[in-house]
Write a structure and sequence with these properties.
- The complex is a heterodimer of chains A (106) and B (141).
- Chain A is built from five helices and five strands, in the order αββαβαβαβα.
- Chain A has 106 residues and is an alpha/beta fold.
- Chain A has one domain: HprK N-terminal domain-like (Udp-n-acetylmuramoylalanyl-d-glutamate--2,6- Diaminopimelate Ligase, Chain: A, domain 1).
- In chain A, strand 3, helix 3 and strand 4 form a beta-alpha-beta unit.
- The model of chain A has no long low-confidence stretch (mean pLDDT 97).
- In chain B, a hairpin with a 3-residue loop joins strand 4 and strand 5.
- Chain B has a single domain, classed as Heat Shock Protein 90 (2-Layer Sandwich).
- The relative contact order of chain B is 0.20.
- Classes of the chains: A alpha/beta (106), B alpha+beta (141).
- The interface between A and B is medium-sized, with 20 and 24 residues.
- The complex binds adenosine-5'-triphosphate (ATP) and magnesium ion.
- Magnesium ion binds next to helix 2 of chain B.
Chain lengths: 106, 141
């Protein structure tokens, strides 16, 4: 599924999107960064409630396709600016992590 | 073995804004050299974990990275408090991170296990009161 379809499914807000056409394959849910680094597959969607700049570093290292901030969590300023400078895809939704996964269609 | 390209970094302690910049630089260099994406991912994650450990647990340190055509060798050296029981520290889930470090998303106790998992050679040497040295090799084949 492409990121723009995912945005539609989740009724998500786009914080920054480098490539809305990027393909998302599967997903991973987690907030502990080293657990995510150990387990999140490349090109997946990362569902989290963690909103600091380290999220950008981890997303870039693991090469996930898109970060989905759930539960109405908003990125802090550093995460927002790092997403732009690194060229990540970052969206937010008011849905819980559970509901976001269910509705994602991934 | 042909000549290595050496990169050296100072890693600042307790600074979560600059944390990760050394691994980022290595990642960019490997990309420029045309190393395969699956190898870059392993190197970047292992080095980031090690870098973050120096930032959180050791008050900073140094990274010395040698890139050869067929492999990369990363040495992370710090003069932090050292690790009293390495076997325990290597266990998945073992962490001494404080609550405010956990709030940042670190402290799952998965960093060292990830470093071992993503590298072909992994060596950790530590002496209490002296410091810790981690040596990692990832082969590009
Ligand atoms: N460079 C270091 N200097 C001193 N102690 C260290 C160092 N690296 C790791 N440790 C010790 O080993 C423990 C386990 O490290 P590990 O990286 O696996 O987990 P963590 O850093 O606590 O959490 P996570 O990496 O999952 O965010 C740490 O909590 C710390 O006590
Ligand atoms: Mg760690």
């Amino acid at each position: 599924m492409k990121i723009n379809e995912l945005v539609k499914n989740l009724n998500a807000s786009v914080v920054y999107c480098e490539d809305a056409e990027r393909e998302v394959i599967g997903g991973y849910c987690g907030d502990f960064l080293s657990v995510v680094m150990g387990k999140a597959p490349a090109d997946s969607g990362w569902f989290t409630i963690m909103n600091n700049q380290n999220v950008a570093a981890v997303a870039s290292l693991t090469d996930v396709a898109v970060i989905i901030l759930c539960e109405g969590v908003k990125p802090d300023d550093l995460l927002r600016s790092k997403a732009e400078s690194v060229g990540l895809n970052l969206i937010t939704t008011d849905l819980s992590v559970f509901d976001a996964v269910l509705k994602s269609g991934l | 073995m042909s000549e290595a390209l050496r990169l050296e970094f100072n890693v600042a302690g307790n600074n979560f804004i600059s944390a990760g910049s050394a691994s980022d630089e290595v990642k960019k260099t490997l990309k420029m050299l045309g190393i395969g994406a699956q190898f870059i991912r392993k190197v970047a994650i292992a080095m980031y974990e090690g870098e973050i450990n120096m930032v959180i647990h050791a008050g900073g340190g140094r990274a010395i990275v040698d890139i050869f055509p067929e492999k990369i060798k990363i040495v992370l050296q710090d003069e932090g408090p050292g690790i009293p029981d390495i076997e325990l520290a290597m266990k998945e889930g073992y962490s001494t991170a404080t609550d405010n470090i956990r709030d940042l998303g670190f402290g799952a106790g998965m960093g060292l296990p990830n470093m071992k998992k993503y590298t072909d050679e992994f060596l950790i040497e530590s002496e209490v009161g002296v410091g810790t040295t981690v040596t990692m090799v990832v082969n590009f084949i």
